[in-house]
Design brief:
The chain has 3 helices and 7 strands. The chain has 146 residues and is an alpha+beta fold. A 3-stranded antiparallel β-sheet has the order 1-2-3, with no helix packed on it. Strand 2 and strand 3 form a beta hairpin. Helix 1 crosses helix 2. The radius of gyration is 18 Å and the shape is globular.
């Protein structure tokens, strides 16, 4: 598993840009910040990471099944008692497979299971949790959880 580094810089009040070392950028802001649109919220980025990771892994694990039309929809499902956390994440793999092609369905289903059981780092991290360490400007550990 490779390690990654993302730099997130402030553009203005409640308006941020995240950049990777390869030059890609994504704007991050609250959904209700009209001046910072278009953007993703942090939770939307998490959901996008789950869908993107699932898609990249299915491309590898189910390559023998035609899945060019695969669409992955990821939703957060939260209730008041979830206390500011996402209560559940629902990932739906939507595709029309050739009628009567049981083999394609089996290959795709196996690929989806392997995605979440073994290969998708994002899904497995969310499911099992990761330690979160917050360091202050002087390198002091200010928070550690997970």
């Amino acid at each position: 598993m490779a390690d990654y580094r993302i730099e997130t810089v402030r553009n203005g009040e409640r308006d941020w840009t995240a950049r990777n070392d390869r030059g890609a950028e994504v704007r991050i802001a609250p959904a209700d910040s009209a001046g910072a649109q278009p953007s993703f919220t942090p939770v939307e980025l998490l959901l996008a990471a789950l869908g993107g990771c699932g898609g990249l892994v299915v491309d590898r694990t189910a390559r023998s099944a035609g899945h060019e039309g695969l669409r992955i929809v990821v939703e957060s499902v939260s209730r008041a008692e979830d206390d500011g956390r996402v209560g559940a994440v629902r990932i739906a793999y939507e595709i029309e497979l050739p009628e009567g092609d049981a083999r394609a369905a089996e290959v795709l289903e196996r690929g989806i299971r392997l995605t979440h059981e073994k290969y998708c780092t994002v899904s497995r991290t969310v499911e099992h949790g990761a330690r979160v360490e917050a360091l202050g400007p002087d390198g002091t550990m200010l928070f550690m959880g997970g």
